[in-house]
Every structure is written in C-alpha cells, then in structure tokens.
Hints:
Layout: H1 2-25, H2 34-42, E1 52-56, E2 64-65, E3 78-81, E4 107-111, E5 119-120, E6 133-136, E7 146-147, H3 150-156, E8 159-162, E9 164-166, E10 170-180, E11 186-188, E12 194-199, E13 207-208, E14 213-218, H4 220-234, H5 239-251, H6 256-263, E15 271-275, E16 280-285, E17 292-293, E18 300-303, E19 307-315, E20 327-332, E21 339-352, E22 357-365, E23 376-383, E24 390-394, E25 399-400, E26 405-412, E27 415-420, E28 422-426, E29 430-435, E30 442-446, H7 448-465, H8 469-472
Antiparallel strand pairs: 1-2, 1-3, 4-5, 4-6, 7-27, 8-30, 9-24, 10-19, 10-23, 11-18, 12-14, 12-17, 13-16, 14-15, 16-18, 19-22, 20-21, 20-23, 21-22, 24-29, 25-26, 26-27, 28-29
Helix pairs in contact: 4-5
Amino acid sequence: xxxxxxxxxxxxxxxxxxxxxxxxxxxxxxxxxxxxxxxxxxxxxxxxxxxxxxxxxxxxxxxxxxxxxxxxxxxxxxxxxxxxxxxxxxxxxxxxxxxxxxxxxxxxxxxxxxxxxxxxxxxxxxxxxxxxxxxxxxxxxxxxxxxxxxxxxxxxxxxxxxxxxxxxxxxxxxxxxxxxxxxxxxxxxxxxxxxxxxxxxxxxxxxxxxxxxxxxxxxxxxxxxxxxxxxxxxxxxxxxxxxxxxxxxxxxxxxxxxxxxxxxxxxxxxxxxxxxxxxxxxxxxxxxxxxxxxxxxxxxxxxxxxxxxxxxxxxxxxxxxxxxxxxxxxxxxxxxxxxxxxxxxxxxxxxxxxxxxxxxxxxxxxxxxxxxxxxxxxxxxxxxxxxxxxxxxxxxxxxxxxxxxxxxxxxxxxxxxxxxxxxxxxxxxxxxxxxxxxxxxxxxxxxxxxxxxxxxxxxxxxxxxxxxxxxxxx
Length: 474
C-alpha cells in the first residue's frame, strides 16, 4: 500500500513539473508573455485594443490572409496591425511633442513632396497619398533653388567646375593653299631690243643665285650707249657729258659689271652676260636661245621659295577672331606627319561673296623647299592669345535653348540654383560669361539637363498652383 502511494506521488510531481515547463516555454502561466512585457515597457496599446488589418506569411513571402491561417508546416501567419502600415498612420493621433535632445536638428516644418508652395507644421499626406518631407533647421531651400539628395547626385554622376578668369584660347580651323611670297617675285626683261646669243639657264624650276648669268645678249642700243659714255669720258667734254652718258646706261639697265669696265677705260662690249636679279627658283622661262627679245618682254620669272605664303579661307563667323600676328600651325596633305609654324601677316578687307570666307595670309618658313606652290594645307590659328582675360566656364555647363542660356550653380549639400547668363565668345571647350555668375562659382558640367528638368518641373508646379494675379492683389 505504501509503495502504491509513493508511486502516485512521484507521478503527480512529474505531471506538475511537465505542465509548468510547458507554460514557461509557451510564454504563458504563471508569467506574463514576452510580447506583453515588451508592450508594457514601450507603452503600446494592448493586443485587444489594436486593430488587425490582415495576416502575412511568417517568412515574409507575398502571401496574405484576411483571417488567421497556418502554413503547410503548421506555423501560424503573423498579424499586421493598423499602426504598422504607413497608409493608416493618419488615423492615429500625432505623437506628443518631446523635448529636443542635445545635438539634434530642429524640425521646422513639412513641405510638399512635389515642390508646391504648401507646408504643414505636422506630418500629413498630399492628395496622391505621398508623405510630406520634413525640413530641418539649415535645410531651408533658397528662392529659386532645387534640392536633390546626395545619393541621387552621386548616382546621376553630377560633376562641377570652377568659373575662372583667364584668356579664352580657341583654335580657328580653315583650309589653305600655298602661294609664292609676292615680295620676292622678280621679272627679267630688257629695256631695249636685243638678241639672245647664248642661254645659260634654259629650264624652268632651276635654282639661281643673285648675279649668276642667265643669258648672253647683243643690243645695238646698249652698245651705242656704251660708246657715248666712252666718248664723254675720254674726249674732254666735262663732267656733265659724263654724267649724262652714265645715266643713259642706267636707264637701259645695263649690268653694273659692264659700266664698271667702262670706268676702268675698257672698250665697249658688243655682247655681255645678263645677271640674275635675285636668288630663287625660275618659275617661268619665256626665252629661247637665238630669239630676238623685244623691250619689255618677260624672259624669266624668278621667286624666292624659302618663305611661303599660305592663303587660308576663314569662315565669316571666325574672321573677327583672327588677328594679325596670331600664331598658326599648318599641315600639308602632301607632307603627312609634318607640322609647320607660321604667323598671320594680313587679313583681306573683303569677303568672297560666293563662299562667305575671308582671305588670311600666313607666312611660313620653307628652308628645305618642301612646300610646293599650290599645295593644299590645313590651317589652325590660335585666337585670343593676346586678348584680355575673360570670365570663362566650361561649354558643357551651358544649357542653351536658343533664346535662353542657363547655368546651374552648385550651392553645396545637394542644392543647385539655375541662373540665366549672358554669353560672349565660345571655343571648343570654353564659353565667355558676360553676366550671371562670378569668379569662383561652381557650375554643373554633367547631368545638368536632369537638374534643369527637375527645376523646370518645380517652377511649373509652383506656377500651376499659384493664385491668379487678381486674387493676389488686396
């Protein structure tokens, strides 16, 4: 009997211990549930007072139920309460104001998410259900500015550059043609009829030096002038006759070597060599050995090709940028890989009516005679080197719609201000700013069209919601 009582007591104790352990593991008797303890600590309403909207899958899957439900493995769906959904936040009373902690920014107001001129001292939603955005002290938008989050600024690749004051250097490109230097052209002609007895330079393109004989000539009039001078110097007729005879020889352009021989007392020369008047290349030869040369006939045309002119056809819109003295670089299609330095020496005063271009003359050294007459050239003129410094911004910073030029000035912390500017000269990379920005301003050079579009949207919405002019007047 005693054994039966002891066995019953042991079984009762084991059963009580099992029930207590189950209660502890399930957050029930004899303690309050963990969720209830947490609710009491945070001050949240009781489960009975909270409104359940729906039940969701315990694993966070897109599976919802309007009433309690279990998964295939027997787990219960999780209840979602009204205060846990942002769309139902407006049904709750606003939170009690709390004292501002040290180091926290002061909340000023809430602004419309679409940039409209509408603010609220408490959280609210617009007519599309979008939450108003909190504005803290220091985040107030300046008039005419647009604010973009720093994350969006980095994601869109916004880049800025500094507005600087320096010379606007730009390159003017134009086609050109090589020409001879007109200042070195020389024509060989006789001032009296004569006969070419011997031709020393008998081919076009031959290089000659000054004083080198070109041909041997016999001219009766030149021989007669020599005899007159000889008679005046040896017949005792006085200095006037001698000077007259010398002047006649010079008028006939008798070579200086022949005149010097007459002064030394030598007899008149029936034939004599005609020297080259300059160093250069024979461009044209119009004489044949044995022919009679009439007075004034062109026998040779000689030019010095050590200096070449390149005549560039400058477009009408670039004429004002090409100044005399500007440096130029020239490359010739017949000489690939070679670049020649030159300088603008003259700009013609009129334009070609057909091509609307002006002629700019560029002098180029040609010591090796590589540049040939009538070669085509590609000319690059450095414009603006000698001009006063100007306020310059990158050309990519300019938003030009045709009748409106705008740059976006970066104000820091994701704030940008569109500014209308007045522009002047432009190069391939820079633009002159005459009005609208100051030296040192940071302007947006990339992704500026996205910011400008957002700024225009904001301005359009403000204009759309602004009261009519008549309503604004008192």
